[in-house]
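Researcher: Quick test of sequence recovery. Tokens follow.
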């Protein structure tokens, strides 16, 4: 089964994708993670997208589509994937249709006030990428990863200015995908406000797995 996780930044897509993947064996593919890895490794792609990402803008469609196409081509496991953060524009959705079959699109609904609180308190481990929140999921020791002892940091695009920009970009470019996939009969709305375990359970019920 191939899923798309749709929703504003901070709606919990990544957290729920990781849980669902653990429980079902689906492979989570996050374009944000792929781009962050490219930036970290200073590849040609990384150098092109670094400043766009830090400002909270969208990477150009042709670069994003090429990256996803290549990643999906190497996906041979067969169980299926969770696309987290792709597509984010109509052009990306149109392109995806030409090379990949999607079974359902999960739309995570979370009010803006909650999104802002989630993103501004978010912390990530520099070493193992584990996610925390200073209020909702604090590490045992401040700024230290429970899992590996790595240092925690705030993503540059979780700054207040970038958050506002990302929400505006989401409303303008990504929200139209809700109607797009509704028309295709693929959209499933999920309340993204409860704890991740509860949200994950709702997704499993909705897709019957
Ligand atoms: P995320 O981790 O999903 O919030 O993505 C972080 C950043 O990566 C976004 O703000 C964009 O700059 C870039 N990005 C991720 N996915 C896409 C996409 N599908 N299209 C364009 N840019 C993307």
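Model:
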């Amino acid at each position: 089964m191939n899923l798309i996780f749709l929703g504003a930044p901070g709606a919990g897509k990544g957290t729920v994708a990781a849980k669902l993947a653990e429980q079902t064996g689906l492979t989570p593919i996050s374009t944000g993670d792929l781009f962050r890895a490219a930036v970290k490794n200073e590849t040609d792609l990384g150098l092109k997208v670094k400043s766009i990402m830090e400002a909270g803008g969208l990477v150009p469609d042709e670069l994003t589509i090429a990256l996803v196409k290549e990643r999906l081509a190497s996906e041979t496991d067969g169980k299926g994937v969770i696309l987290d953060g792709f597509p984010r524009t109509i052009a990306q959705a149109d392109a995806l249709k030409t090379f990949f079959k999607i079974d359902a699109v999960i739309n995570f609904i979370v009010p803006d006030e909650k999104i802002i609180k989630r993103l501004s308190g978010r912390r990530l481990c520099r070493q193992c990428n584990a996610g925390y929140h200073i209020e909702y999921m604090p590490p045992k020791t401040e700024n230290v990863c429970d899992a590996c002892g790595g240092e925690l940091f705030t993503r540059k695009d979780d700054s207040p200015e970038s958050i506002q920009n990302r929400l505006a970009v989401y409303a303008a470019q990504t929200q139209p995908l809700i109607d797009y996939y509704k028309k295709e009969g693929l959209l499933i709305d999920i309340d993204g406000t409860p704890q991740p375990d509860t949200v994950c359970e709702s997704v499993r019920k909705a897709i019957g797995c």
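Strands lie at 3-6, 27-30, 81-84, 104-109, 122-125, 131-133, 152-153, 187-191.
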